[in-house]
Write a structure and sequence with these properties.
single chain; mainly alpha; elongated
Length: 511
Amino acid sequence: NWADLVRGRAYAREGSLDRAEASFARVARRKDHQPAAAQGLAELASIQARRGNPAGALQSATLALEQLPPRHPSRARAQFALAEAQFVLQQTEASAAQFEEVGEAGKGLLAERARFNAALAWLSLGRYDRFLEDYKAFSSAYPESGLRRELLFLEGLRQARDEDPRAFQTLDRFARDFPDHPRVPAALLSMSETALLATPPNLEAASYYLKASSDAAPPSAADAADALALFLADAEGRPPADVLALGSQFLDRYPDSPRVADVRMKLGEIAFRTEDYAAALTAFELAARDRPQGAFAENALFLAGQAAVRSMNTASVEKALDLFEQVARRNGPLKFAARREQARVKLATGLEQEAILLFDDILKSGPDDEMKHAALTGKGEALFALGSRDPKHLPAALRLFEEVAGDAAAPDRWRNEAVWRKGRTLEKSGDAEGALAAFYEVLERPAGSGETDFFWFYKSAFDAARLLEARGDWRAAIAVYRKIADRNGPRAQEASARVTRLRMEHFLWEE
């Protein structure tokens, strides 16, 4: 038993972890020599933690702590392994408490690592109060330890990730207090990112710290600085062609960089913005391929689908449907947004019944208000389109538009659209007076300032004027056109021109 214990420790020092684990397991199984078995369990737990078997380490460490005497030297080793396993298994608060106990009761390198890990565990939970307590205790016990500097750096990174305004100050203190630390370039780079992502962005600071990071960084870290330079160039409003060139240079220089996916995503955004939808589609798909897991890939595939829709050809429509299907099957946050986009594509290509099934799928899911209004309105559009061929569908469409229009909690943009669509449905059903009343309902609402407010106002106003002209009510039509002109929006001149035309054609002069 003792021989196996000694051999196992020798194997562990050599790095032969499989042989060490086998030796410690033999010792742990010996029930006839309980002291050795308990120590074997402690050593086994440590090896299992090192080999990425947290469940095994948790079990072995728990058994060891049950069997070892209170002050036995192996208890600290077992407790450290238990804390490691708990951390990996996301029992983080319990892990931090275990590490604190080891740090307070132990000594030497194990105690130092335990205090460091305790602080790190609290930091991972965003518990800055407990982190600060452990950081102060660590600094007092180990003032010259390099791990103290590491904790300060990691605190700044965590704060930056959480968009905590203290991040900049923490990283700045780290860079000033430990200017020779190898992590200083990374700290400066994070400061640049923090400045770039601030509200509003501090482009001057972002540029300054990016240059400082580039000057301090070894060549092996150049990809991080070059990637940030690309994002900064875009934020500064540089010409899209220049930013795209920086992106192409990055992909040529650093094909294996972990930041390739982020750069492709940025290139896709720029291509989309400049209406080069084919290039955007390619960039987003490659970004999803490079980082296929999680929300990043889901967003990339969704954007690729939107780019495909805008490419305006039969092949790209099928591509868009496939991309949105991939997003929906991931069952993530964008699942029903993808279903909505699929339904919009189906509706645009004359497949109204298929679109209705997709909108129903969304409505059955208990969506939030925004998605609910979109699905109700979309389903109404599909029924309206069917009603153009078979009027029996129009009453169902009308009910859906009335449901959205009558929802007092709905934003004006949804209510205005629903009322306009209600008017079109009434007109299609032969109720011109009802349609005119609906269009006037939008006209008489308080003026908004956004493009969406103008959009549905114009749709309603010009349709109201069209109906009035159709029945020869020229003065009422002129009054509507004047109302449009008074809004002083993008179609004000067009409305003024129509006023002049109607006056001249029908000899209507100011009284």
